[in-house]
Design brief:
alpha+beta; 7 helices
Length: about 120
């Protein structure tokens, strides 16, 4: 049951209007997504994020909540958002990092990588 890819799901909608609503809501303090804080600076995607993704042994994709598959939708209903899911070679989906764990890395790509790749060390 090897992991074949990861999917991070933002607590925000995609598209021009969805992203605009999130940016305005974030500035007003009415919208928050700790996964967004990890992957993006206020202006663009963090170069540290791209470098981290390139180091991973399997693909890592991010999606907005309005862009997920039916299987991911069913899983997210139980876990909440944001979340990082692992897709396994047997078709199973499991939760790797929940919202509270993403909050705990405080926007740090380094701390996120540690939590993703070495969960026992991240909790120590």
């Amino acid at each position: 049951m090897a992991i074949i890819r990861y999917t991070g799901i933002y607590n925000a909608d995609g598209g021009v209007w969805g992203e605009t609503r999130y940016v305005i809501g974030h500035m007003l303090g009415t919208a928050a997504c700790s996964l967004c804080d990890i992957t993006h600076s206020p202006i663009r995607r963090k170069p540290q994020w791209d470098a981290m993704v390139a180091r991973l042994p399997v693909p890592f994709e991010v999606r907005h909540r309005n862009e997920i598959t039916p299987a991911e939708t069913a899983h997210v209903a139980a876990t909440g958002l944001p979340v990082v899911l692992a897709h396994h070679d047997d078709g199973r989906i499991s939760t790797v990092l929940r919202s509270a764990q993403l909050d705990a890395v405080s926007g740090s790509v380094v701390a996120f990588e540690l939590a993703l790749t070495r969960p026992a060390l991240a909790k120590a």
